[in-house]
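Many introductory courses stop at the sequence. We go one step further.
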Amino acid sequence: MGVEGCTKCIKYLLFFFNFIFWLAGGVILGVALWLRHDPQTSNLLELKFDGAQAPSTFYISVHILIAVGAVMMVVGFLGCYGAIQESQCLLGTFFACLVILFACEVAAGIWGFMHKDTVSKEMINFYDSVYDNAMSKIIMDREKRDAATAVLKVFHETLNCCGKGQFSAVLTKMTDEVSITNLCPSGTMTSCHSRIEDLFSDKIYLIGIAALVVAVIMIFEMIFSMVLCCGIRNTPIY
């Protein structure tokens, strides 16, 4: 004999939410792995120039997301099993894991909000440094200039952009036309600054939406797990 009445309804609701939670963990893990290996971001974030690595702040968020997705799948399975078995021990452990996960998610959300513009700014500064080295006529080190040109072409071809702004895009196109440089893809005058901002802003918003959905599910699960745990404790057979 197990729980009855409303508590039994809570039991199956908790199982349902845990199943959704488990699926959400799998989706988040998949999205995080896609963000980690997406050709656009990986091509840019793996670039090196003059001993400097492209900023990796974005990857910090992605690695956190991978860990969260994996933990969510484990905790979701624990919650499903605890609900079906009506185990106070498993449900208590599940509740504790949810509280820790929720606290970590809130902390990560605050950190992400505070640094939401950092990723784009760091990448733009890195791009500007490379662009200035590639375009400068006063650099005597041809090897360094060639290295800057190679990195810059990866930016331009990956994002289909040219230059730091409209003026620099026109200037670079002109130097390409007279064969002084060979940097920009044909047929584009879009600023790389705007392309970089769009690329990382879209992905950060995707992470934020996923975190918000998961937080709502976690709140319901914490409530249901406590109600079910209390219902099991008050059932005569226990």
